[in-house]
Design goal:
The complex is a heterodimer of chains A (387) and B (426).
Chain A: E1 3-9, H1 10-31, H2 39-42, E2 45-47, E3 67-69, E4 71-75, H3 79-86, E5 98-100, H4 109-133, E6 138-146, H5 151-166, E7 171-178, H6 188-202, E8 205-210, H7 211-226, H8 255-273, H9 282-289, H10 315-325, E9 345-350, H11 355-368, E10 380-385
Parallel strand pairs in A: 1-4, 1-6, 4-5, 6-7, 7-8, 9-10
Antiparallel strand pairs in A: 2-3
Helix pairs in contact in A: 1-5, 1-8, 4-5, 5-6
Chain B: E1 3-8, H1 9-23, H2 32-35, E2 47-51, H3 54-63, E3 74-76, H4 85-90, H5 101-115, E4 121-127, H6 132-147, E5 152-159, H7 169-183, E6 186-191, H8 192-206, H9 219-234, H10 251-259, E7 267-276, H11 281-291, E8 304-312, H12 318-321, H13 323-334, E9 344-349, E10 360-369, H14 372-388, H15 393-398, H16 403-423
Parallel strand pairs in B: 1-2, 1-4, 2-3, 4-5, 5-6, 6-7, 8-9
Antiparallel strand pairs in B: 7-10, 8-10
Helix pairs in contact in B: 1-3, 1-6, 1-9, 5-6, 6-7, 7-14, 7-16, 8-9, 11-13, 14-16
The chains are: A alpha/beta (387), B alpha/beta (426).
């Protein structure tokens, strides 16, 4: 099985990353009841034998001793990372995986990219190389950052360049959180545009996410939950925004939004980690969805936003789910896909869905969006998993 | 004892798992003679399983009864081939000669071939739309033909849904089909659309009373259907058993000799039906003809050059009493070409290997039918449209493919379509 390394840069990147690791542990815990370190865990975590002190050797199979995340945490101010290290996830991270500074980037791309980039280049490369050495078959890097700030956009894109130069064979997936129109950072337009150029040139695949779209989804779920009619039958812990009864009893303001992004990343990598009836690897995503090298920005959507308490999903509800995947309310950026041109599309399905349901829905939707798909690209990538 | 089975990629291995599960059932493997066609003297299956990532093969290891599988016959890669034919064919740049999947597979095949009492050929199962099945499959085909020129190669290829299952499927199918035309002796084309359609209509007949439920077909039932059709066709039959009573598994090669009369037209289509109860061979042959696509969407009727029917479950010789009407129905339904004086061949077997119940029959018909031109024309058109817009090509150049490969592939497929269109008049 292949491994992936998560590189989280800046305040946003680290907060989303924190939710990601929490949800990943929860997901594996629900599947892996016996506590055996299996291949699925191997893709994101190392199993370290802590008996030999802190710098223990990796244990490749057998019971779980101590899980360490395959991650590098970078932030130019200490607040967020320190909080992470003092919270319940402190044992999942190694102090050797962090790079921090004190003063921050002042919401300035140039400070993040040029000043801190040149200053920390060697350290960053060293940490990345060490983390990569612990992987026997590294397939991709996930970079999580925001576009509007200083560290995330500046230093984050600098890290991308380093990854391209030193690990050319490894795919670079970037999750970029774009600022909303009413952003509180004045320099965010400059930072975003400067970072975009770097993304176009150095990333293999970018998943843009807009804060405003996340806010809309959160509001929609809250409205549903409190509306009474549907709210009673809705399983609150199953919403896309919930922490699954996670580590925090009191959820902070951005947690719901960060959970959505964390869920997206988990679902994207699920086929590479768990086996299903029809598997799709991560490199298949890049190869199938990127027809031209520079057009590598993928719009993502998640359905359903919540599940009902009743587990049996009647076919009409399933068909509704597929329709929702193409509607503008479920996209993670503010865009209406039905008014745009699809170059390629991938549907990743987890759960109890049969091939015939999938084919029926694909045929239904290629018909409704048929005039929008480029003529040659009228093909949809499908994937089934039994989880 | 004459064939080596090779399963490549996710699809090839999943169908292979169902195939081996089906024919290694305890109620089938009763005597030593039953084991002879498929097992080595060390009681391992004469089969090699290759995939570029470990998930499917790990599952196979757990499911197929362990004692039949030899661990060294399962060959894994690590990273997958990303649904890219070029990546599957050429492999990653970092692979050396010794570590490449191709070399390891050829080495394993060599050992299996040496264990055969009389090696006659290889049966290859794979899909056309992925990376490993189509790319590595094409390369293996070429290498095996080079290494064992006297052996036959029968390839069982699964072609993807028309409405699409993967954006790169057209390029992958185009390139793989052109390689298969060059290096195999026969290609048994199984189409996902047809399989799904057949299963739904069979289910629809059974569940006619339950109106409100929409019939559901799972991926595993599709795989089981493919494995059953293959078993109906290729499992040893009584009509080909020599006087000693022990079959050496010559069915795949006899199939090729019978159904591929002309080397330029070697694509076969397969239809299968299995029933329980009293044998009504007439109605079964009507159902089989009904499953066939008899004319193109422009109204041009399709024809066949040669047909093979395999009737299993003929323990009371009921097939022979209705053989004339069955054959004439098939001849009419399949529109056999006039220049072939004996267009329909048939094999019979008293037992039905597909269904364990004693009173069951199956009829499997394999034909060299020109409906394949519909599929090929579709692949050519879609691939050409994509090629002209230059979409996705940078992935193919990156892994070693060249313009000439595509041009040759277009020419080869067009040549096949033209051969089929003109072969009726020969």
């Amino acid at each position: 099985m292949t491994q992936s390394i998560v590189v989280q840069v800046g305040q946003c990147g680290n907060q989303v990353g924190c939710r990601f690791w929490d949800l990943a542990l929860r997901e594996h815990a629900s599947v892996n009841k016996k506590g055996i370190y299996d291949e699925a865990l191997n893709s994101f975590f190392r199993n370290v034998d802590t008996r030999g002190g802190v710098d223990g050797a990796d244990v490749s199979s057998g019971k779980i001793c101590s899980l360490k995340a395959r991650a590098v945490l970078i932030d130019m101010e200490e607040g967020v990372v320190n909080e992470l290290l003092q919270g319940p996830l402190q044992e999942v991270f190694d102090t050797k995986q962090l790079i921090t500074d004190v003063s921050g980037s002042g919401n300035n791309w140039a400070v993040g990219h040029n000043v801190y980039g040149s200053q920390y280049r060697d350290q960053i490369l060293e940490k990345l190389r060490k983390t990569a050495e612990h992987c026997d078959c590294l397939q991709c890097f996930f970079v999580i950052h925001s576009m509007g700030g200083g560290t995330g956009s500046g230093l984050g894109t600098f890290v991308l360049k380093v990854l391209e130069d030193d690990f050319p064979e490894v795919h670079r997936f970037v999750t970029s959180v774009y600022p909303s129109a009413e952003d509180d950072v004045i320099t965010s337009p400059y930072n975003s545009v400067l970072a975009m150029k770097e993304l176009t040139e150095h990333a293999d695949c970018v998943l843009p996410i807009e804060n405003q779209a996340l806010v809309d989804i959160v509001n929609k779920i809250n409205q549903m939950a409190s509306s009474g009619k549907l709210g009673a039958s809705m399983k609150l812990s199953s919403t896309v925004t919930s922490g699954h009864g996670g580590i925090k009893t009191q959820e902070k303001p951005f947690d719901a939004m960060n959970n959505i992004v964390a869920n997206l990343l988990l679902n994207l990598t699920s086929s590479a980690r768990f086996e299903g009836s029809l598997n799709m690897d991560l490199n298949e995503i890049t190869m199938n969805l990127v027809p031209f090298p520079r057009l590598h920005y993928l719009v993502s959507s998640l359905t359903p936003l919540y599940t009902l308490a009743d587990v049996n999903v009647p076919p009409r509800r399933l068909d509704q789910m597929f329709s929702d995947a193409f509607s503008k309310d479920h996209q993670l950026i503010r865009a209406d896909p039905k008014r745009s041109l699809y170059l390629a599309c991938a549907l990743m399905v987890r759960g109890n869905v049969q091939v015939s349901d999938l084919r029926r829905n694909i045929e239904r939707h290629t018909f409704t969006i048929i005039c929008r798909l480029m003529g040659w690209s009228r093909v949809v990538l499908q994937k089934l998993s039994t989880l | 004892m004459s064939a080596v089975w090779l399963h490549i990629g996710q699809c090839g291995n999943q169908i292979g798992w169902d195939w081996w599960n089906l024919i290694t059932r305890d109620d089938i493997l009763k005597t030593e003679g039953d084991r002879y066609p498929f097992f080595n003297h060390d009681s391992h299956l004469a089969a090699v399983f290759v995939d570029s990532e470990p998930k499917v093969l790990r599952r196979l290891q757990r499911k197929v009864q362990r004692r039949y599988l030899q661990e060294s016959n399962l060959i894994f890669g690590r990273k997958g081939r990303g649904s890219n034919w070029a990546y599957g064919y050429h492999g990653p740049h970092s692979e050396t000669e010794e570590t490449s999947l191709l070399c390891r597979t050829m080495e394993c095949l060599r050992k299996e071939v040496e264990k055969r009492d009389c090696y006659n050929g290889m049966v290859m199962l794979h899909s056309l739309s992925g990376g490993t099945g189509s790319g590595l499959g094409a390369h293996l085909c070429e290498a095996v033909r080079d290494e064992y020129p006297l052996g036959h190669i029968l390839s069982v290829s699964v072609s993807p849904y028309r409405t699409g299952e993967c954006p790169l499927q057209h390029y992958n199918s185009l390139l793989c089909l052109s390689w298969l035309q060059r290096y195999t002796d026969g290609v048994l084309l199984l189409n996902n659309d047809d399989i799904l359609h057949n299963i739904l209509s069979l289910q629809g007949k059974r569940a006619a009373t339950v109106q409100s439920q929409q019939p559901q077909v799972s991926l595993s039932s599709m795989n089981v259907h493919c494995a059953s059709s293959l078993a109906g066709l290729l499992y040893p039959v009584h009509s080909l058993k020599p006087k000693s009573g022990i079959s050496i598994g010559m069915e795949p090669w006899e199939l090729l000799r019978s159904v591929c009369p002309v080397p330029s037209t070697k694509f076969l289509c397969l239809n299968h039906i299995s029933k329980r109860g009293t044998a009504f061979w007439d109605s079964m042959s009507s159902s089989v003809v009904h499953m066939l696509q008899r004319q193109s969407h422009l109204g041009k009727p399709y024809y066949s050059t040669s047909v093979l029917a395999v009737a299993r479950g003929n323990h009371d010789n009921s097939f022979f009493s209705s053989v004339d009407s069955v054959l004439s129905k098939l001849k009419q339904g399949y529109r056999c070409a006039s220049w072939n004086p004996f267009p329909i061949d048939y094999w019979t077997d008293p037992q039905n290997v597909v269904d364990p119940l004693p009173h069951s029959q199956s009829l499997t018909v394999c034909a060299n039918h020109s409906s394949v031109t519909g599929h090929l024309q579709h692949v050519i058109e879609k691939a050409r449209a994509m090629y002209q817009s230059r979409g996705y090509l940078h992935w193919y150049w990156k892994y070693g493919c060249e313009d000439e490969d595509f041009q040759e592939a277009f020419e080869t497929l067009q040549f096949i379509v033209d051969s089929y269109n003109s072969a009726e008049e020969q």
